[in-house]
Amino acid sequence: MLGEHKSKWMQLPRIVVIGHRKIRDVGEVCRRLGLSGSALIVSGPKTSKIAGNAVSDILRECGIETRIKVIADASMEEVKRTEKLAGEMGANFLLGVGGGKCIDIAKATSFALGMPFISVPTAASHDGIASSRASISGGDRKSLIRKLANGNTTSVEAHVPIAVVADTELISKAPYRLLASGCGDLISNYTAVRDWQLAYRLKNIEYSSYAAALSQMTAQMIIESADTIKEGLEESAWIVAKGLVSSGVAMSIAGSSFPASGSEHKFSHALDKIAPKPALHGEECGVGAIMMMYLHRGDWNLIRDTLKKVGAPVCASELGIEVEYIIEALVHAHEIYPERYSILGNGITRKAAKNLVKITKIDE
For residue 158, what pLDDT is reported? Predict the structure, then answer.
């Protein structure tokens, strides 16, 4: 019998549209969701020309007033500026049209203002297109150790998009590096779920076998499709976009980012704060997954081989980051989200980090 204390809230996208030229359906999506009035479109300098203006025209044809906010970065200052503009124009909802930064700003702003937002990705580089977390930057690298010790990372709570409209034609035309990065983010679900299971066994963290299975399925999909994921192929965009949405849904079912964020993400966030010029998030998570799978005593070579097939980085030189920063990030990675238990435990020594980098060939 289900205990009276058992209760769970799940926020899931109400509509998900993925396919060829589906950006044209954004007006119909708004109609079905009962969204009207005015909308603030958050886009970037390039993506506003690629898709932001088109979305604005489509919505205006549906009787929805629009304004486009072109953002420079994904910072708290930009969130505040977007909040102010949304308030001044009396926006009823927001749309994030573009890459991860645009969607993160729209996501964080909609959460702060308590209004819905629609995710319209023009690239499939990470699972933020459908998740309830936003990566927002702030501060500088000088206070690195203090920030790491306080667990002050760039991931903040946000809204799950009320709808996702992913145009595979647009996504397939984006730089292929972004799609390969999305593959890295997805395959890292393998180590994230292993960390989650470890936290469940050792720390009694709430665990959802359903969310875990869905997360692992998205990683498996990349492994099985690796030979067919190629640059310029719209089918490749379909596979990765579908996987990223599924990964976001897994997090919504779990009520946390556990299904898709573990030790490999700790490593990525630490690297972002340490490296002078970080790589893409999904690229870092993919490389992190190679090392974390080794620590889990799993098939780390399978992850490495899959990333190679899709053209994602598998070592420091391909990330464009010096090995010393990789080692430093490994040493401090456990300090990111210190309350979230992972295979890193209370941290690894510098010697162990050097050995890990060498064994998994990350130093190449």
Answer: 79
Q: 87 burial class (0-12, 13-18, 19+ CB within 10 angstroms)? A: exposed
Average pLDDT of 239-264? Answer: 95
What are the backbone dihedrals phi and psi of residue 320, each rounded to the nearest 5 degrees, phi first?
80, 25
Domains of the chain listed by start with CATH number: 15-174 (3.40.50.1970), 187-359 (1.20.1090.10)
User: Of 30, 3, 36, nearest to 15 (Cα)?
Assistant: 30
Q: Report the predicted TM-score, pTM, of the whole model to 2 decimal places.
A: 0.90
Q: Which residues of 330-359 are buried (b: 16+ CB within 10 A; e: fewer)?
A: bbbbbbbbeebbbbbeeebeeeebbebbee
Share of the chain above pLDDT 90, in %: 85
Kind plus residue range of the DSSP H or E element containing 225: helix 209-225
Strands (E), the chain: 15-19, 38-43, 65-70, 93-98, 117-121, 133-135, 155-157, 163-167
pLDDT in tens, 342-352: 999 999 999 99
Q: Which residues, 6 or more positions from 207, have their beta carbon under 8 angstroms from its beta carbon?
A: 196, 197, 199, 200, 258
pLDDT band per the 50, 70, 90 thresholds, residue 151: very low
Which single residue is written with the structure tokens 């976001």? 248
Beta strands at 133-135 and 155-157: parallel, antiparallel or unpaired: antiparallel
